[in-house]
Structure formats: structure tokens, C-alpha cells
Amino acid sequence: MCGFNFDTTYTELPSQFFTMQNVDQVVSPKIVIVNHELANSLGLNFRELNKSQQAQLFSGNILPKGAKMFSQAYAGHQFGHFTMLGDGRAVVWGEHITKDKMRFDIQFKGSGKTPYSRRGDGKAALGPMLREYIISEAMHYLNIPTTRSLAVAITGEQVMRETPLTGAILTRVASSHIRVGTFEYAAALQDRKLIKAMMDYSINRHFLSKIQKGENRAISLIKIMIESQLNLIVDWMRVGFIHGVMNTDNMALSGETIDFGPCAFMDNYDPNTVFSSIDRHGRYAFANQPKIAQWNLARFVETLLPFIHQDVDKAIKIGEEMLNNYTLSYKKQWLEMMKTKIGLFGEHKDDEILINNLLSLMKNRDADYTNTFINLSEILADEKKINLANINGLESWCNRWKERLSKNKKPITESISMMNISNPQVIPRNHKVEAALLSAEEGNFGQFYDLLEILKNPYKINQKAKPFQKPPAPDERVHETFCGT
Ligand code: AMP
Ligand code: MG
Fold first, then answer.
1. Ligand 2 centroid vs 249 CA: distance in angstroms?
2. What is the Å distance from ligand 2's center to 248 Cα?
3. The ligand 1 atom nearest the CA atom of 121
4. Counting atoms of ligand 1 from 1, which one is nearest the CA of 249?
5. Ligand with minimal distance to 147 CA
6. Can you tell me the distance from the alpha carbon of 422 to that of 425, in angstroms, rounded to the nearest whole number?
7. How many helices (H) and strands (E) does the chain have?
8. Which run of H or of E encompasses 95?
9. Tell me, what DSSP letter sits at residue 321?
10. Which end of the chain has the smaller Cβ count within 10 Å, N or C?
11. How many CB atoms lie within 10 A of CB 468?
12. Cα separation of 226 and 444, whole Å?
């Protein structure tokens, strides 16, 4: 049916890692959106189904052949505190294998209670599911590793939050749902065999080609994980993305951005920006993300200590060295990334100062993060604009920048091309996202579809995108988002 080709391996792991699971039947499902482009890339086709059949499939009333539903056990540090968790409202259908032998989890979010639901109802509301759909797809088109969204269906039921809300189910596609928290879960059960099973499984599933025979597998896995998280965070910082809940259960081994709760993109540049209403102390603020990723990676290293070295002290020392390297590598990669945003080639001793000066000027002037970089490339593209009329107050910085650009040893056109690949023209601005979700809650999906369309070409200069490029007016500003679980 529809091209599904399941070959599920997760359920061959020791039974502590999952629970076989039924999904709740829903009364009157309606389909909101099917991601036909994503389906196509996975070798799936839902166009042959009518709307009602799509609704039945993406609400769990009809399951495709070969699906073996299960929810996963994991733990996690939530805002720094360890908790046993698990898929409280998510169920994996299985692992779909594409024609080119790629393996993806297909997962429902919001399909009912599981043994890991704790006090939750296992359900999801329409707004947060559409938010995940928009932001995850935006991340994909921004070329940032991410889980993706295949469909959203309305269940026809209400979910009780602070007020009754429209119930919905999201179908998510991920390279896997293994998390740092999955390793913490195995470690918390104090059974080395479980940790080893998860380590071997993760390596076999994701990294077999990256690990040579004879290497220490734990050390190699940690190095790969550090590198992929570092790349991911640098990408987030490039586009002004704030994840919002970087708990260890929301950090995926695959290196994909996962779990879009109160996440948002920053408008005006402020390193302390927090949108999440549950993040009272700013633990997951924009500028804290690199440090938090390192903190999470330390929790990951701890779970693997017994496999790094039999001698605990030596194991800790090796682990610490790898984590310390993260700090240096991050700084280096962040600097390289920021240089692409302002068109700098080569290395000059004052590059970092130049960039940090720009950022503090932006902060002091409440400058829009995305649009400032667009303005800089516009200035380069149009010699006449080099009087810098567009960026009020940055004149003297721009003069220093121009001087540095002259040392590039490359034509200015190459700087502009590099900047245009690095700096998005359009991001899912929070006020636009919120407006689309509000309207969807009222049954009008036009704004949601329009926003998705625009976000498919974030690096193209596009007249249609103009209204989506504007920062929010003061009364449009969204200060808080909540995952609304
Ligand atoms: P999240 O903040 O989405 O990463 O979720 C943290 C944990 O809470 C995960 O174990 C989720 O499965 C669980 N959870 C979130 N919402 C619900 C819900 N409505 N019912 C049951 N469990 C939930
Ligand atoms: Mg989560």
C-alpha cells in the first residue's frame, strides 16, 4: 500500500527498549496536509488515496501492511534533571526502506497513551503539530539536518489543555529516534549489555562506514556524535534558530534537529533570546545552545565510559579530552560560518573582532538578524549603495568591513555568492507562524499553506517572499511560545 516497505530492526533490540503498541481509533479524522514531495523522495505515493483514505491512514484508523507499532523507552535530563521518559504520545510504525536502501522511522505523534505517558493524555493539539510541520520543513529547505513531517490529520476530537483544542496527529519521518536519552535510559538500568546493545545498534544503523575495524567503537561513536552536534548547532546559529527545549531526550544520535516544541527563529539579534514560556531561567537561550550541546554530550559520554577504557580514570580523561576539543572546534567552526555570512575569505587576525563588533552593534540597535546580513550582501551587489544608507549606524563598521573585504584576493561577486548561500532571505518568522496557526485553529489553512510554499526557497531572492521578510511590527511581536503538549 502506497509503497511502504517496512523492515523494522528496532524491535530486535532487548525488550526493555520498546513496547509493542496499538494506536487509538479516532472518530472523524480529516486530512490537513500530506507532504507529497517528501513522500516522493521516500518512494511513497499517497496521491492514489482520496482525502478520506488519507485521513484514515494518517490518523491510525487503517495501518499499512508491515507496520508493527511500538513506542520507545528512553530517559533524559530535562532542564538539567534526570527523568525516566519514553514516547508518551508517539508510536513508531516501523522502519521504511527506500529504493536506495535508506532507512527511515515513520512515527505518529499524538496518537494516544503508551506505557510511557506518565500523567499525559498521549494526544496532541493541532497548533503544535502544524508548528512542527512548518519549522521542520523550513529547516529542511534551509539545508539543516532535521526530522521531517509527512502529514497532519485532525482527529475530530478535542484535547484538553488550558482550553479545549482541536486534536491532531503528526506523522514524522526521522533517520531514527535514538536519542542521548536512549543511552541514559540503558545506563540508568545499570546493565552493560543494554548499553552495548544500543551502541552496536546505533553504529550499525548510522555509522558503519565511518568506523574502521579495530577502532574503539565507543570513542569513535562519541567523536562522530560531537562532530555532528557541533555542525548542527553552528547551522542553528547561522539562521538564528532557537530550539527551546534542548533536553538530552531531544538530542538525536542521527545529528538531526528533533522535537519542535516552543522553538522559534530570532527576529532582532539578542543572544539572550528565549521564546519558550517554560524556560524561565533562559537555560536554552540562543547563545547558550553551543554550551548546552556540550553539556548534553557530556551526559552521552558518561553512559559510554565503561566502553572507553576498563580503567575508569583513564576513561574519564579520554572523555574529557574529547569534550574539551569541542570548545575549540566549535569556536573555530562558528567563526568560519560567520565569515561566510559577511563574505570573508582567508584568515586575518582581526576577523573575530570584526564579527563580534557587528553583533554587538546589532544588539544595541535591535537590528534584525536575518535582514542585516541580507542588507550587507545588497550593499556589495550595488556599488552605488556603498554609502551604507541602508544600515543606519553601521557606517564605521562597514568601512572596516570593506577594508577587510579588499584583502579577500577574490572578486566581490564570490563574496556575494557565498553570503547568499549562507544567509537565508526568508525564515519562518514567529509572528507569521503564529498567525498561520491561529487561523488554522479556526479552520482556515490558507496562511499555513502559503507560508510553507514561501519557505521552500529560503535562499532565493523572490518578490513573493517580500511580505514574509518583514520583521514584526511592535504589536506583532511574539514573545512567548509554548509547546502546548
Ligand atoms: P517533549 O517536551 O515533547 O520532548 O516531551 C517530553 C516528554 O513528555 C516525552 O517523553 C513525551 O513523550 C512526553 N509527553 C509530551 N506530551 C505528552 C502528552 N500529551 N501525553 C503523554 N506524554 C507526553
Ligand atoms: Mg521530546
1. 6
2. 9
3. 20
4. 4
5. 2
6. 10
7. 15, 11
8. strand 90-97
9. H
10. N
11. 18
12. 43
What is the C-alpha separation between 196 and 202, in angstroms, rounded?
A: 10
Q: Which ligand neighbours the alpha carbon of 180 most closely?
A: 2
Ligand 1 centroid to 401 CA: how many Å? 47
Report d(CA 270, CA 288) in Å as an integer.
12
pLDDT in tens, the chain (485 residues): 799 999 999 999 999 999 999 888 999 999 999 999 999 999 999 999 999 999 999 999 999 999 999 999 999 999 999 999 999 999 999 999 999 999 999 999 999 999 999 999 999 999 999 999 999 999 999 999 999 999 999 999 999 999 999 999 999 999 999 999 999 999 999 999 999 999 999 999 999 999 998 999 999 999 999 999 999 999 999 999 999 999 999 999 999 999 999 999 999 999 999 998 889 899 999 999 999 999 999 999 999 999 999 999 999 999 999 999 999 999 999 999 999 999 999 999 999 999 999 999 999 999 999 999 999 999 899 865 655 545 667 888 999 999 999 999 999 999 999 999 999 999 999 999 999 999 999 999 999 999 999 999 999 988 999 999 999 999 999 888 865 55
Q: Which atom of ligand 1 is closest in space to residue 123's alpha carbon?
A: 19
Residue given cell 527576529 in the structure block: 267
Query: Residues with beta carbon inside 6 Å of ligand 1?
Result: 85-90, 117, 120-123, 245, 249-250, 259, 261, 483, 485
Residue 127 Cα, ligand 2 centroid: separation in angstroms?
Answer: 17
The residue assigned the cell 555509522 is 207
Which ligand is nearest to the Cα of residue 120, counting in written order?
1
Residue 117 to residue 293: CA distance in whole angstroms: 26
Lookup: cell for 260: 519542535
Atom of ligand 1 nearest to the CA of 119: 21
Residue 393: the pLDDT is: 73
Which residue stretches of 175-288 are H helix? 180-188, 192-202, 217-239
Contact of 111 with 122, CB cutoff 8 Å: yes
Angle (CA) 263 266 270, round 5°? 120
Catalytic residue list: 249
C-alpha cell of residue 347: 584568515
User: What HEC string does 111-172 produce?
Assistant: ECCCCCCCCCCCECEHHHHHHHHHHHHHHHHCCCCECEEEEEEEEEEEEECCCEEEEEEEEE
Q: What are the backbone dihedrals phi and psi of residue 191, each rounded to the nearest 5 degrees, phi first?
A: -130, 105
Q: How many residues does the chain have?
A: 485
Nearest CA to ligand 1 atom 14: 88
Distance CA 33, CA 35 (A): 6
